[in-house]
Each structure stands twice: as C-alpha cells, then as structure tokens.
Q: What sequence folds into this?
C-alpha cells in the first residue's frame, strides 16, 4: 500500500510517500480500501511538531477516511466485504489501505459520495460535540464561530442552521459572499486592520455579547472571547492555531500563546455567570459508544438532506504537501481531501 509519512518536524515538504506492506486486520478490526482521506489542521500541527498527542516520528497522520471494506477480522459481525463505509482512524489515515476497530467504522448510505463520507467524521463530530453536547445550543442562541470558512466552521454553521441559532462568523473578506449564501447571518473580516472582531461583535450585539463561542485560535483570543460572552454564555475551546502562524514551528509564537492564556478561577466563573469548556476529540477514543450515538444524529441529518459538507479541493495522495500548503495559507473554504 501507499502512505504519507512525517519523518521529522518541518514544513509541508518534509512529507514522504512510501510503499509499505498491506496491513492485516486484527481481532475486532476491518481493513478498508481507502477512497478519500480528510485533511485536518491537527495533521498540520503534528507535522510541525507542536501537536502533543501525535505519535513519535516517523508516523503516518490522518484521522478520517472513506472507502470499502475488503477484509474483516475475527469478532466483527456488523461489517462485511464490499460495505461502503467511513471511519475515524486515530492516525494512519493518509494511506491507500487502513485497518480500523469496527466501532470506529460507519456504513455509508447509497446516496452518500466518497467525498462527503470522508468530509463528515472529524469536522461534524467536533462541531456537534462543541455546540450540542458541551454548548447546550438552543434555538435563538447567538453563536460566534471563528474560522467559519474552515471544515469545522462550516459544519458548525450547518448545525446552527438546523437547530435555529443565529450565527456570527470570522473569515477573510473574500469568503464572505459564499458564507452568506451558505446561511451565515453576519460575517466579520478578521483581517481588517481597523475593525477588531471584539469591537465589531460588541457593536452587532449592542454590547450584550453572544451565547456561545467556538474558538480554535487560542492564546490572546481566549481572553477576548471570554469578554464577548453574554451572561450564561459558554466558550468552547478546541484548538490553538494562533500558536502556529507559519509553516514551521516557532518557539516564540508558542511561548507568546502560552503566556497569553487567561487563568480562570471557579470564583470568577461564578461571579461572571460564564462557562469555559475544552474539547479534544482525540482524547475521546474510549467513548466509542457515545461517539456512535452522536454520529448517528449527524448521519440522520445528512440522510434527510439538512446539510451537505462542502468539499473545497481534492489532492492526490502524493500531493499531500500541496494540500498542507493550501490549508496553512488559509486558501480553503470547507474541506480539503486526499485521494489515493
């Protein structure tokens, strides 16, 4: 099989295509012939050497794939050769074949494309956990979504539309028209030199703030977003991309981001009537049954045509470095995929 490896930390050009023996599924696993692979910012951080959950290098990145079952291990009764599926892979996904525990594998509907199937797992599960499970999103809430043009951002926008929430999203100006057509209520240009998003959001909400914020930025943004919460508001933190502003690891950016972190105390949270919650889907692999329940709701929405993921661009597996460049340059609007 063919795989993309990260041999050492560095720019996208360190990624290597290698030929390796086909894997054999173990007890409770199935082997998939991969059709499409989701590219996530966590893969980028891992390549840069700043993702603490990544395996020791060298390793194969990748959290999600779609494909066809072509071998079944002992103890698996719910999946069979020829089943079209998508899966959460917990690294190893940048491969033409992959073995996955059967509880992390989900059957595709006949009308679900391979691209849609690969674009759903990480982004929509992250957005669902942030909004519905941790954020207790209700109809009429106002939600601020940072990076709304990215994969998780668009997934969050879809879920907010389904549940009847109002949305404010930060994105570069060139993406605003698409986002408004997609259903975003208010777009904010985070790159505008004279219009800091904190001031703009306060103006939009007449100083009250918002009910829920999804923050993948980290650093000083955690402080700004906490200030933007209305009473009983919830800040969901699920990333720290501001600590990786370039394509190569920057110790200065990491240190600045670390020391910019706020220090919330229980007494402060009580006095302010605000909540700060953290989400790392990579630490939820032991909650497979719960994740399957959440994914079932997401797939039900897909089945009833309440959303379709937006796939921005598809790269060949051997062009994984180009995909990483594209993602880090913030060129994408929606999901970036690889195909073996």
A:
């Amino acid at each position: 099989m063919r795989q993309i490896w990260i041999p050492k930390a560095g720019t996208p050009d360190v990624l290597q295509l290698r030929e390796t023996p086909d894997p054999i599924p173990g007890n409770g696993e199935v082997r998939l012939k991969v059709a499409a692979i989701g590219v996530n910012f966590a893969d980028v951080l891992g390549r840069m050497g700043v993702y603490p959950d990544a395996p020791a290098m060298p390793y194969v990145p990748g959290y999600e794939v779609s494909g066809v079952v072509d071998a079944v291990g002992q103890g698996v009764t719910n999946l069979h050769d020829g089943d079209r599926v998508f899966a959460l892979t917990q690294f190893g996904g940048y491969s033409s074949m992959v073995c996955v525990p059967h509880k992390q594998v989900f059957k595709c509907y006949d009308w679900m494309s391979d691209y849609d199937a690969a674009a759903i797992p990480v982004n929509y599960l992250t957005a669902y956990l942030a909004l519905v499970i941790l954020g207790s999103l209700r109809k009429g809430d106002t939600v601020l979504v940072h990076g709304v043009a990215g994969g998780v951002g668009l997934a969050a926008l879809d879920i907010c539309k389904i549940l009847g929430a109002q949305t404010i999203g930060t994105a570069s100006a060139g993406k605003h028209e698409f986002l408004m057509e997609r259903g975003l209520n208010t777009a904010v240009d985070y790159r505008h030199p004279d219009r800091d998003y904190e001031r703009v959001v306060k103006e939009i909400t007449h100083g009250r703030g918002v009910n829920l914020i999804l923050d993948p930025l980290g650093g000083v943004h955690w402080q700004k977003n906490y200030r933007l919460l209305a009473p009983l508001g919830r800040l969901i933190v699920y990333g720290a991309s501001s600590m990786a502003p370039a394509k190569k690891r920057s110790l200065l950016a990491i240190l600045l981001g670390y020391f910019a972190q706020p220090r919330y105390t229980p007494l402060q949270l009580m006095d302010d009537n605000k909540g700060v919650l953290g989400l790392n889907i990579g630490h939820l692999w032991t909650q497979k049954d719960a994740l399957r329940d959440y994914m079932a709701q997401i797939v039900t929405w897909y089945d009833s045509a309440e959303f379709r993921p937006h796939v921005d661009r598809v790269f060949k597996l051997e062009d994984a470095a180009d995909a990483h460049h594209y993602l880090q340059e913030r060129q994408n609007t929606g999901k970036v995929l690889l195909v073996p």
About this structure: The first strand starts at residue 2 and ends at 5. The chain has a mean pLDDT of 94.
